[in-house]
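_Per-residue structure_
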Amino acid sequence: MKYKNESNGGNYFNSKYIILMETELEHVLISNYKVGMISYLNTHPEYFEEAIKLAISNKQPYAWRAAWLLWSCMKVNDQRIKKYIKEIVNSIKPKKDGHQRELIKILLQMDLDKKYEGILFNICLDLWEQINKDPSVRFTAFKFIIKIVKKHPDLTKEITFITQDQYLETLSPAVKKSISKMMKGIIL
């Protein structure tokens, strides 16, 4: 970026003056409340793809918010997200807890190919087994695990192991109760 040097009238590049410009969507993500963000994306669908790219990026504070906004504005099996499933799945592991949760919530609404189902199932198992992770991330991961087990009942016996006390002790009574209900829904 060039800046005019007022003292000598010339143009120069000086790295200490680099200004990172926010896009319109990025500005909305940090300056509006939930209703405003949702309204903006719904009335400006041309920014939906930018929101997807932000959601899978590491560009904070926008990335987590973009993932959250996408989940709030998407349709079940949203075609606009379908072509980004691979990138979303591959971006989950290195993210922080809340960001992981929001990306999984997006994928919970999608019909995944078997390949990505398997990859995400393994990611979610790994997240679930990390008992020091944020409980909301673990619970969201567990929801995906249950979704896959319902689709592939032969996995039922394998997941009964992951509901042993050691995996539940860091969770609230309400979450434990929800998990128990989900398990009763799949165990015959």
User: Anything to note?
Assistant: The beta strands are 3-4, 11-12. The two ends are 64 Å apart (CA to CA).
